[in-house]
Structures are given as C-alpha cells and as structure tokens.
Here is the input.
Amino acid sequence: MSAARSEKSSVLSHALKDALIAAIVAFGLFILLLGFLIDDMRGPGQLIGRPVLLASVVGMVFVGRFLISLLYYNAPALRYWLGAIWAAISAFARQYKWQLLALMFAAAACWAFYSPRDWPLILIIIAAVFIGVRFGFSAALLVVAILFPVTFYNNPYYLGIAIIILTYVMLGWGLNIVVGLAGLLDLGYVAFYAVGAYSYAIIAQTYGWSFWVCLPLAGVFAAFFGILLGFPVLRLRGDYLAIVTLAFGEIVRIVLLNWVSFTNGPNGIGSIPRATFFGIPFNATDEGFAARFGLEFDPTHRTVFLFYVILALALLTNWVTIRLRKLPVGRAWEALREDEIAVRSLGINPTNTKLTAFAIGAMFGGFAGAFFATRQGFISPDSFTFPESALILAIVVLGGMGSQIGVAVAATVMTASFELFREFEQFRLVIFGFAMVGIMVWRPRGLVSTRDPTVFLKERKTISANHVAEGRG
Amino acid sequence: MEYFLQQLINGLALGSIYGLVAIGYTMVYGIIGMINFAHGDIFMVGAFIALIAFLILVAIGITAIPLALFLVLLIAMLLTALYGWAVERIAYRPLRGSFRLAPLISAIGMSIVLQNYVQLAQGARVKTLQPLITGVHTLFDFGNRLVVQISNIQILIILTTFALMTGFSWLVASTSLGRDMRACEQDLKMAALLGVDTNRTISLTFLLGAALASVAGIMYLLYYGVIDFHIGFVAGVKAFTAAVLGGIGSLPGAMLGGLLIGLIETYWSAYFSVQYKDVAAFSILIIVLIFMPTGILGKPEVEKV
Here is the structure.
C-alpha cells in the first residue's frame, strides 16, 4: 500500500523535475528571440519587450513536458487501455459489418433527401466506400480521383487545389523512385522540375509546338540533366550525394535567375501557350473546344481537362514505377537501398543502376514541370527554390519511402492542409519541420505506410529491418 | 596589384567567418559521421541573439563598445550553445543507430524549423546594426589614390578567429574533453566501452560548435551590419564546402578550407561576376567531392562492411 503510494509520488516528482528542467531550457532558448522584438519600423535599434509571450511559451513547455512525462511513466497502463479500446471497436465493426453499411446508406439517403444538391458528393462517398470495402483503399482513392471533377464541377477553387495536389502526388512518385526505391537522397529534385518547366516554356514559345509534342521533350531534357548530374556524383556516399544534389539545385536556380537573355531572369516567362485539347483550344471562338463539341463555353472545361491530364500523368508515373519494381533494374534499386556493398559483390554495377533511377525520376519531374508551366502560364525561378525540394522530400518521407499509396496520401494531406491553413504560413512550416524530425525519430520508415523490399528472405533475420542500420541485421 | 591585395584582405576576413562555421560541421562529422544541416541556421540564430543582446545592453546604458562587445560575445556564445545542445537532444540523439539518411532528413527538418521560428519571432524584414567599429588603416599607398586598406573590423575578425582557433586546437589536443572527443572520433563504440561518456562528449561537441558559429554570427553582423532569417542557408552550404575542401574531420583543414572559400568567392566576385559567386562556391563543392573526396588535409576513409 505505502510502496504503491510512494511509487506514485515519485512518478509525480520525476515528472515535475523533468518539466522544470525543460522550462529552464526553454527560458534560455526563448528569452532573447521571443522575449524581445527588434522593431525596425519605429527606427533603427528599437526593442519591444514581450514578457507575456515569453511567459506563456515557457509555461506551455512546462505543462507539455509535465504531461508527456506523466504519460511516459504510465506508458504500460496507457498502452493497455488504448489497445483494448481499439480491439473493441474493430471487433464491433467486423461483427456488425452489414448493419453499419445499411446505417450508412440510410444516412446518405436522409442527406440526399434534405439537400438534393449534394447528391454528387454523396454518390462519390458511397462509391468510394463500396469500392474500398471490395477492392481496397487504393482503388477507392482512384475512384474518388476520377469522379472528382464530376462532383465539384461548379467549384473551380476545389478543382484548382485538386490539380495542385495531383502535381505533388506526381512529383512525390517521381522522387520516390530515387529516394524510396534506390535510396539516394536527392535534395535538388526541384531542379528537374524547373528544367521541365523552362524547356516546355521556351520550346513552346519559340517554335509554337503543341503541349503533346513538348511534354516528352521536357521529360527528355530533364532526364538528360539527371544523367548529366548523376554521372559524376553517383559514386558519392549517401549524405555527400544529398549535399551535392542540393548544390546542383541551387546552381540551376541561380543560372535561371541570371541568364536573362535565355530565361528572362527574375521576371520569369509569361504567356506560355495553354494546353489544347489535342489541337483544339479552350476558348470562346468558333474553333474552340466548346463550339466544336456543341457545348456552351465555360472556362471550367480547361480546368477539368487539366485535371485529367495530370491525373493521367501521375497514374503513368505510378504504373511505370510498379512495373519497374518487378524488373531486374527495380530489384537492383531496392537491393542497393538495403545494402550497397552486397549489391556490388553480386556483380551489379551500382553506378549504372543509380543512374537509371536518377534519370527516370528526373524525367517524371520534367513531365510535372511541363504540366506546371502550361497550367500556370507563367514561370519564374521563385517557384523552384530549396523549400520546394524539401516539401517534395517530406512528402516521400512522411508517406513511407518506397510506398506508392503512402506517398499519394501524404501529398494529399500535406497540400490540402497547406491550403486550409494558408493564414498560418510560418506556423505551418515550423510544424512541418518538426514533423520531419518526429517521423525520423518515431517512424523512420514512414508515417502513412511502410514498404519492405519486394523480395527478401522473410526468415533468418534476427532483427526486423526497421530496427537496424542499413547493411546490418 | 593594389586591387588584388585589397581583395586578399577582404577574402581573408570573409574566409575567417566561413572557417569558424566550418569547424562546427567538421567536428560533428568527425565524431558521429553526420552532416549537421542545421548548423548554418545555428549561425543565423547566433547573429540574431547577438543583435538583440547588443540592443538590450544599449537600452540599459552600457555603451562602451569594448565592454558591450565582450558581453555580447559571452551572452551569444552561451545562448547559441544552448540552441546547439537542444537541436542535438531533440533531433539527433534519438536517431543514433537509425538508418544512415535518418539524421540528415531530421537535420533538414530542424533547419526549416529554426528558419521559420526566427522569421515568426522577429519578422521577415532585414535587421540592421549601425557600424560599431569604424576606422581603416592604410597598408600600402601606391599614390594616385591606389591604396590597400584594412579596416579595424577586418583586423578584429582575423584576430578573433586566430585566437579562437588556437584556443580550440589546444582544447582538442590537450584537455580531457579533447581526448574524449578524439576517442569518439576514432571509434564511438570502443570509446564507450572504455568509459567515455559518449553522449556527454557529443553534446559538448555540439555546444562548442554552436558557440563558434555564434562568434561567426557576431562577426558577420559587425562586418555587414545586415542580417535576416535566411542568411544561414547559403552560409551553411559554403561553410560545409569549406569543411569538405579542407578535409572533413580535420580542424586545421576546416580553417584552411574556410579561408580558401572566402578567397575564391572574393576573387570570383572581383574578377568575374558577382551574380555567379554562389555558383562558384557550389561548383567547388561538387568538384572537390568528385575528384578529391578526402579534401586537402583529410584522411582517406575506408568503407567497412
């Protein structure tokens, strides 16, 4: 009895001590940078004290650390209760599967009855749930994507966001080939995106070729840049390679910024030719898409068309990746990621293998860049900065390196939440940075999903691959 | 000729700043074999802390420049070292023994956090400091108004860097902490088995690296008089280039690399083009890594299974 009580009080005092230390450290960290504001608006060298802000942040750290410590010291009990609750919910869902489905239908019917205008949304939800239950999550996601423009035809804002999301899904899948499959950390992926965008813009403006001719060319140019960069640097070790790709990305951006005669420098390239429906422009003239197909002119036609173009491009990326993963080269990528020395001793040429990954990843980056250019109609070096590379990398890392569905979910969640919290731009970047740290600490193989190599010996491993450094275990 | 000499002096001053930051990279790489991507941002945080500390000192009436500078140096080194420690504790220590790229990704996350935290706390506008140390000395006079000058601030930068380097080399070579550091650099596991508190040693390495970066931040602030939340990124990559050029893991190498990068950048700006000065530094990084991955003073690295 008394032992239990003293244990409880020692837990409390431990937690208090932790919290106090954390608060002292936080005070030291924040006293100058948060406690004072350099107010240049009132004249040089003016300071404003912000004691309330400082005190509240330090107080928050104290309380937060106290609660975390309490949870940590009580972790076994907590884990037991959470596990029990989860088991109960899933058992209930499994037992009353049909009843739950019927309930959902009833709810949907009520909804459709009371607000008939929402029926496309209801339809998409029902379709997604059905296909999700029958064919799995990825099929449901695909159906939602295909039906999206039907549902939100009257909402150009949502359509615009969906196009941005799909662009990032495609970029994430492209980078996933390099980072997730081949295990090469590429911090300059945005350079290939930029090469694709600029080559489309310049070719389309100079020669007047159509989007469908320029798109493969943009991919070829980006792949060429990938080989150009990859050839010398792919012998480097992982983290050196990361820094070199970062340097390469910056070089491309600086050149775009300063080669004014070719790229128009910081002003960017404007009035890039818009995408056409295989030669038929989207405008109100008699030659336009609407007139040819006997429809009333509506600017949404182009948005919907762009949506399906990027969806097709993203799916192409996905399909190629899945196919490649089964080919010898894909197997070699995954093996390279797991253990480079073993791969080399099996007689596979690591440089060529890495080079193909780099070039194919770059090519899809180039496709995405060409699409970006034709959608925006304007590009400038500001769109291709390092934070953009970091964002794409974060999508791959959060989604689970190598996992296709994980990357798609991560891209959707991140881009959508970025749109939702547009006002809190800097907060969201701080949170996003902490998320990258947190994922590495708690779930290094990805938050949404993990992917083990396509083929590997399931037995004979003393420890799971998740818990060891590469090349061990 | 006078232009060449003048650029030599400017390059040495700039190179000293890079060298001080490069030491942080090279030490951390030497001990735990990771690139501390957030180190450039620690440098930026150091510059901000120094600026605020100076303004506070002015506000409470300490205006004697030498005393104020000394106090600023002390405060900034202390508080920036705390940042270095916190970054290591939060983002790197839990990742020992994780897969190879994990610490680098975590470091990129930390770098994003630090940049945006400073932007949130102090705003995105550039912060200025009026010149504190003025006065120039004429070294050579070629007549015809062709002179080579060195300013007091440049003298201060070069002398401080030299003094810190000497002190730091002494610390690594002949104190017990330095011995622990060298032991950890050779073999972390073996050092731990022989009773070296490796976690403490690594933490202290981060503390020292951050303190040196904060000194570099103060020098940058005094030299240019303008800082913003974004200075850490480019300075960080250049200092990393310096560390690689000198041979990563080697202290004199970091200093030498810093000076070389400073000189190359200054001469490139002076004789070729200012716009492409960053391209010059980045290209050196790529060229060195491809053709001379051990750097000038580094030891060849053996890949172990």
